[in-house]
Amino acid sequence: MKNKIILYDFRVAIFPLVKRLIDIISSLLLLIIFSPILIIVSAIIKLTSTGPVIFKQKRVGKNGLFYMYKFRSMRIGDNDKFLKEKYPDLWIKYKNNDWKLSVNEDPRITTIGKIVRQTSIDEMPQFINVLRGEMSLVGPRAYRNEELNEYATKYPNTQKYIANIRSIKPGITGPWQVSGRNNLSFEKRSKLDSDYANNRSILNEIIIIIKTPFAMFSNW
């Protein structure tokens, strides 16, 4: 029993250090490797639509709220108001579908935005969040605070899952992204993220990272 306790404490102490090291090295390498794509996409977004190249929004992290970065894929302005006033049927669908619309049916998304979203290129700036220690390569989805609060009211049975999600850093990829992406309900997504939080290991991290490219390609 004593040996098992020592082994468990060793894993608890070492895992965060190894995970952070993987995050830093991988993010730096990926930013260097994909730098030509980052430059080209930045130029295309700037030339084809008005507004900033990078979109930032407050998300829930382990230590509170932080600004998460993405390539901007939507038009400038109050997009929720635009959808509600111009496309009331889609607005109702958007609300009833846990605040999600498919890329091809969402009129708020620009032409280049559809491409960067379908290929997940829009998420590449999040490597900066990883280097800053706000996110990890692997983790739960980075939710908006109001989104989690609404889900906790709408789906009371997920409150225990939400508590686990809030307890660790969100990730660029994670268990639900490689298990159905946006096709999963919040209840299923939150349970997958919660299970991940309770059973983290280097092996699980590697498995999710390996599965991620296949999940991305299946969404094209």
Automatic annotation (TrEMBL):
It holds the Pfam family Bac_transf. This is Bacterial sugar transferase domain-containing protein. PANTHER family: COLANIC BIOSYNTHESIS UDP-GLUCOSE LIPID CARRIER TRANSFERASE, SLL5057 PROTEIN. Belongs to the bacterial sugar transferase family. Residues 19-217 form the Bacterial sugar transferase domain. GO terms for molecular function: phosphotransferase activity, for other substituted phosphate groups. Keywords: Membrane, Transmembrane, Transmembrane helix. The keyword Transmembrane helix applies. The chain crosses the membrane at residues 21-45.
